[in-house]
Amino acid sequence: MDRMPHFSPFTLTCRGRKTTFHHPVVMGILNITPDSFYDGGRYTTPDVVLAHARQLLADGADIIDIGAVSSRPGAQLLSPDEEAARLVPVVELLRNELPPDTILSVDTCYSLPAAKAVEAGADIVNDISGGQLDSQMFPTVASLRVPYILMHMRGTPATMQQPENTQYADIVDTLADYFTAKLSELDRLGVREVCLDPGFGFAKTVEQNHQLLHRLPELMARFPQYPFLIALSNKSMITRKLPSHIPACAFPDVPDSEWGTVALNTVALLSGASLLRVHTPRPTRVAIELLY
Question: Is 188 inside any structural domain?
């Protein structure tokens, strides 16, 4: 791996306004679900949601990614109507209360919540399923004319870690074939602004996640025109690898997985990552400032 970071500027069109990013982007996670693996249940009232969104921006987030449904292994998805009912009021709240140039992304795999959230003021659709759980997702994104984040996953959150979904002859070849096919379909529909997400923790074992992380330059080289989003924050590929003999942290409010997140995000940055999705933006923002 080249030890000097490389970054290619990219542009996203959000509500008719083109924003060109000249440095890696930090996407701050705002989970409004009661059962997310890391911070479920913390942000459930309007005042708390708004305060956390403002803190994400203050800590260096360029984009706020709003999720209304947990996608942890074994989680059950909501119906599209239920998800939209949970998601839309938060999008409206943030669009009305945050600075007007704030970029909002919505984490959904269904076209109905995606469309309603964009109507309410969201800018980006972040789809963990890559259009596999809703045949109308790609046409909907095309009609909405918003940037789309295309992630790799097999199965659903409830089934993705079953053995049949975690077998790969070569994980980089498999992801490259998947992205090639999906990008061809999106291009045919006129979707031009696409970010690629390898889907760490989705239908992949801990060992496969680490193999994929260290082969990121190889995967990225196959899609040089597309920005890559890397989402490693506090995932099991960190927590299950932390040595048990590490002394107690001097900062008990900061879990060891946060330090691990910064370490692996640095690997991703050195590989050429364009966007990093995190629960706590400030440490990753500091890493970006130091590397660049």
Answer: yes
pLDDT digits (tens, 9 = 90+) for 170-205: 999 999 999 999 999 999 999 999 999 999 999 999
Catalytic residue status for 204: no
Read off the CATH number of the domain in which 213 is found: 3.20.20.20
Does residue 4 lie in a domain region? no
The total number of structural domains in the chain stands at 1
Instruction: Domain of residue 279: give its range.
Output: 10-291
Task: Say if residue 249's pLDDT is above 60.
Answer: no
The reply to whether 146 falls in a domain is yes
Of 86, 154, 277, 285, the active-site residue reads 277
| pLDDT at site 257 | 74
235 catalytically annotated: yes
**Identity of the amino acid at 7:** F
Q: Which among 235, 240, 241, 282 is annotated as catalytic?
A: 235
Give me the pLDDT at residue 236, please.
78
